[in-house]
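step 4 of 6: structure.
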Amino acid sequence: MAREDRKRRQPDGDEAADEGERRGRRDKRPKEEKPAPPLPSEIRNKEKRSEVYAKLKREKKAQKRRLGRERGQAAQRAAELGEEVPEKQVPRTIENTREPDETVCRPDDQELFAGNDADEFNAVLKQVVTPKVLITTCRFNSGRGPAFIKELMQVIPNAQYVNRGTYDLKKIVEYANNREFTSVMVVHTNRREPDALLIINLPEGPTAHFKLSKLVLRKDIKNHGNPTSHKPELVLNNFTTRLGHRVGRMIQSLFPQDPNFRGRRVVTFHNQRDYIFFRHHRYIFEEKEKKIVSKDKKSKGETKTEKQINCRLQECGPRFTLKLLTLQHGTFDTKSGEYEWVHKPDLDTSRRRFFL
Amino acid sequence: MPRITSVESPGCPPLRAITTDILGLIKVVEARTRPAGVAKVVETWGEPDASRAILVASLADRAVDPVLAVARKNGVVELLNPLNGDALAAFKFSRTDQTVGAVENDPLVALHLFRKHAPDLTTLGTFLACTEKGKASVRSVAKENTASDSDVGPSSTWDVCNKGTLQFSSVDAGENYAMFGGNGMEVNLWDITSCSKMWSAKSPRANNVGIFTKPWFTAGTFLCKDDHRKIVAGTNNHQVRLYDTASQRRPVVSVDFRESPIKAVAGDPDGHTVYIGTGTGDLASFDMRTGKLLGCYVGKCSGSIRSIVRHPELPLIASCGLDSYLRIWDTNTRQPLSAVYLKQHLMTVVIDSHFSAEESEETKSKQPDSSMVAEAAVRREKKKKKNVFVEEDEEGTQMVDPDDCDAEAVRKEKKKKKKKTVTEDDEETQMVDPDEGDAETVRKVKKKKKNRRVAEDEEGTQMADLNDSDAEMYAPKRIKSESGERSKGTKKKSKKQQVA
């Protein structure tokens, strides 16, 4: 059908020999003279097909570049003439075409602030209590698990590792409560590979269960740095909805709220499409002398040096990705716990719907 | 599909629901006929304060003089007017044999405000309250007591259990029996009037492996309206059980539902259907005669369900919980009708079934038909009742601070004017209707006269109030009750008219 349509669109040309044959086959279209170039997918010969396809791609790419150049030139011309610069085109992505969501927090929402003041993390975030984190594992911890925990201990100040042994998690929560820990983190490994992270806020919950993936340890990062023991700065990106705020505040309550800025250490939790990306960096501001060749004709060949400050980043692992599976009200209790949010398959109605 | 389910919902019938949340806010959600099918928050009462979080709420859902009772985290029980949110009474709840500081250790978990009107005119309401440790008590709030912050003495009190923690209580439709259940205690049935235990359940036998499960009941309700002997209870290990107190102590029917504890159970007026909500946000209905699952309510509900209410007349239920949404479902099709985002973790929802939908349209409709006029008259009477309420309150405040007197007097005058205009409107609309028979118009005129009489009475009482402070406590009350009867009468009339 597609072929017929194309032929109908381009009836002009001169190819008589072919025409007679075609007329023999189908009498309905007598005046077709030139066949349009066939679609690459219709060519049976693979070599030929790929050739035609490559050519098409090349043309498309060239056209795109040309259009871009024209747009750029038009903008430049407009800027020179002092006219209004045409608006820059913004590509449509899944993030900026996200479905509207009524649970997204607005900055003028007084109820949100009141709710924040009332929640379980408030004592830590208002610096009434210093955070103290207990890190433990699942019962069988091996492979990359111990190494991951070692690095996690360096990331989170005031963290303490406790052997899991054969204790129930509820017992460990009780133990941590008695020793005034503010959070418990449990690294779960499966087949010697960390695959889940459980964060329990104490004493009254909530409990968040994350899927952990894409773990890269420090030694596997190229040109990695080694972190100092300063209190890190914390960057939380894109936690927009009410649930996102809650998760963000929960993560925030793991870290002390008074960073040592001299330490120049940053811990980032970046949320994008409900995946939370963890990165750990050191940064440095450097003063650099930059040579500038002046364009004036009088001082030709004369070079000026200008001091410029630029920032350099160095990653010092680990690097991993979290995805929220459940958020449970209260401390860890899978049997009689109430969930504030559970990921269910019927929630996934669209690719453009996000919860954090 | 968008996340805002109100877009895709087929529309919600006129409805008024009141929700309470953990910040101590009371939010009123209304759906009206215009714009059709969209429920939204119309009012919010209270200031956000976590220490005043509302644990339980109960509504005495009456046509006349409804009362909403809420129990707060700091041990205060408040009685409110559910129509305008005015506090009628607030007092610190504590037992006589306890110190006030014990409230934190022993919070209220169940509250039931009796719907039956108290026979004497001095009480605002009577309620059954039960704390976590199983101390149940019936108290009545007197009107004299409203101003004072003191405790109200219980009229009767008893211990439901001596071990375990109580988690729910439910009172049957006749309000003579109450059931209790909780962690580590079996379901109990108590006679409220004599404060005696009538029946208690017995755990089911150990299963075939010999494992015996500890009783842990999380929710329960009476199955039928007119039968207090059938009890439905939900357990923590995701079972729905039907007990027949007349026949045996072990459950008659026991059904498993999914994997998470059952957190809310509500009965249906048809006498055999129950609605259950679980800790992971699953909502389903069961036919308890057979124990069969009728169907699940699917609609992107992702947080634990704390409370389910069934509308007494319309075929719909409202559910709310930790996902901060109030959802309204059709029970026939099991489709979501509307979802309202209320920002906080919600504790309870109650439905005000006497909400008249056309209240908003009253001013808009230019040529109402006969039934509409009749209904409007009923509504006006209701409004007057409200006015009486307000005036009463105002008088109360007058007693307290005489500085505001002038402003209030002005307001009263305005109200009177309004009333007059309303009656005029009534006349006009009658003039417009040409189809009506003579008999009806006569009836209407009578009604109008009645209305006028009520208005006169009110004015009279107001005059009396200014002169005599003792009479004021009783006089408006009488009118209220009278007008209530009248409103019932007119309602019947209007129904007849509709039939005709």
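step 5 of 6: annotate
 - The helical segments of chain B are 5-8, 370-400, 405-432, 438-467, 475-499.
 - Residues 370-400 of chain B form the longest helix (31 residues).
step 6 of 6: archive
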